[in-house]
Amino acid sequence: MYFAVRAARPGSPILLSIPFPTWQAYNRAGIPGEGLYWAEHPTRAARVSFDRPGGGPPPERWEEGMIRWLGPAGYDVDYCSALDLHDGRELLAGYRLLVVNGHDEYWSAGMRDTVEEFVRRGGNLAVFSGNTCWWQFRLEDGGRTMVCYRDAAADPVAAVDPALTTVEWSSSPVDRPENSMIGVSFRRGAGTWGPYMQRMHEESYVVRFPEHWAFAGTGLGEGDKFGRGALGYETDACDFTEIDGVPAATGRDGTPPSFVILATADLRHWHRYGQGGMATMGTMRLGAGTVFTAATVNWGNALHERHVERITRNVLDRLSGPEDGWEVIGPAGPLRAMAVLGPVLYGADADGMLLARELSGQNLRWRQAGPAPGVSALAVPREATATRPVGLYGLTGDGRLVYREPDGSWTTLGDAPAGATGLALVNGELFAAASGTLWRRSEEDGSWDPVDALPAMTALTSANGRLYATDATGRVRTRLPLAAAAEWTDLCDAAGATVLTAHAGRLIATGPGLPLSWRACVSAPAS
């Protein structure tokens, strides 16, 4: 008999869930009327009891590798049954990170609602599992009976409460793809079964975002292979497209726009062995929390591979501890200024070129978008005013205020403080950072007046009616855009950034030799 001893009170920031529902689903497979398998066999059962022998891990023991590794690796974690998550809001409230491990295929609506709420409220989720949250099941008889018809036409609940129909989460009438919780799905994943299962030991992941924190300390570079043997026997993936050689989730399958692809494996040739598809390791924000997915069943049994182990440690350490704020979204670039216009992040480089890329957490490439001669600061107003349309405004090193016309040319609008390193537009007013002084341009007479000082101010931007600046002490500071001196409130570490912009509640920053990063415009919550 297998059981989990649940802590009376949290003794670790990490809680690991054991997938007892999935184990029970495979119990007595193939015995007519007693097992939920095989999936399309007409004699399969629709309801099975936990009050019977069996219901332990499968022969492959997908969960065992990680469970055996954690203690010797220095992680003292708490455990629970996946069934504890069915009504587990109070249970999860004491933890920073929930770990899903191995083959966690069967989820009840209560389990899913609990976990999604936990993450949206600021908890984190690490999915070292594949084929995750594929089937919905219901609990009856006080939680002792597991119900899964796998067929809406046969499930009597479909007519009265469609959302609880026991079909695949992404199928009608539930239409709640698991992508919205974990970013990926077996729908676009791959599987190799039966006599072909050993094929999984031949496959490896390919690195697609080496600058990401998940790869810190691995030494892996773009295109490197790692994790041979971790990809099996079922994998999950999201629908994605390649943009200049970088994978980007399309969202067509329900994957949130915040999902960032870290590694991929092309397993389309598995169509000969079970199901052809892909594997996409990634991470995303879900509300106030972070989700990481390894997107494969056998990850925990490949922890002997040094890259798999390092990535696992990076995930556990980062997601179980206090949030540090900045997250890399692209490689380093020689930028002097940045601003966001619509969905596009623009940057002016030291060679007088304007660069552009989509603003997202994916490591997309910069493309040339035209000239930006002498531009040392950029800004975009939140909305148009009577005198200023929405567009790119800039300051030049020789003291000019310029505007980029729709045809890509730049028009001089007037003078500006020389040597400016930052520009902000708030409610139609212009603010500039130059020589440690905050300047404001009056609409009445078009003159620039000093209004405040911040020693060695290196960048300036605005968001939601506030000014944000970096200074020589390596801090990000903020104040209201008043026409007089005001207190600069310390916000966070600038992580070396000397170029700063903001959009949609995020600060975006870079500097000489620094990767492009972003973070929320608020202090990180206390752990």
UniProtKB/TrEMBL annotation:
Limits of the N,N-dimethylformamidase beta subunit-like C-terminal domain: 2-304
InterPro entries (UniProt xref): Class_I_gatase-like (IPR029062), DMFA2_C (IPR046540)
Protein name: N,N-dimethylformamidase beta subunit-like C-terminal domain-containing protein
